[in-house]
């Protein structure tokens, strides 16, 4: 969801950095990328333990999520074409959402965008054993959809998302985030790289799912 359907990566970063600044704690150079893909418990522990923000991980998570929710209520940062792309794909295939956002934000964003009914399965990494790059969130979505991961296409923007989908055995369609582009080794895992979300068409997905000829 984040970075693919909504332009939220910079907002997450701004809010987390703000908490660190309020606490008088420096922001580690690799903190932004390290947290992309982490589940809620994982990034909350990171902010408490590595960054050194005061409070329990649960308190920190609640503050960050409350601020994100308030920002979304003011203005939902949908990526151009997101609603149309999802609608076109949903007409042809069952869709699943594997997101690092907490359940509260997944539900509110999809409701506000009018996309709740477009996804047969939605899953937050806080609802599985580990966040991305662990593949468990993608494998669980595939299981709940009753599909073989090898017959699925995952659309991802971040390094950890690309690694997660690839490790789950899915075909990977990368739409690199402009502000936080994926690492070269992660992008190399993609079967196809699209410049923008609107390039993700049913025709492109169908080509990716088409069986390859041998010989």
UniProtKB/TrEMBL annotation:
<dbReference type="InterPro" id="IPR006439">
    <property type="entry name" value="HAD-SF_hydro_IA"/>
</dbReference>
<dbReference type="InterPro" id="IPR023198">
    <property type="entry name" value="PGP-like_dom2"/>
</dbReference>
<dbReference type="InterPro" id="IPR036412">
    <property type="entry name" value="HAD-like_sf"/>
</dbReference>
<protein>
    <submittedName>
        <fullName>HAD family phosphatase</fullName>
    </submittedName>
</protein>
<dbReference type="InterPro" id="IPR023214">
    <property type="entry name" value="HAD_sf"/>
</dbReference>
<dbReference type="Pfam" id="PF00702">
    <property type="entry name" value="Hydrolase"/>
</dbReference>
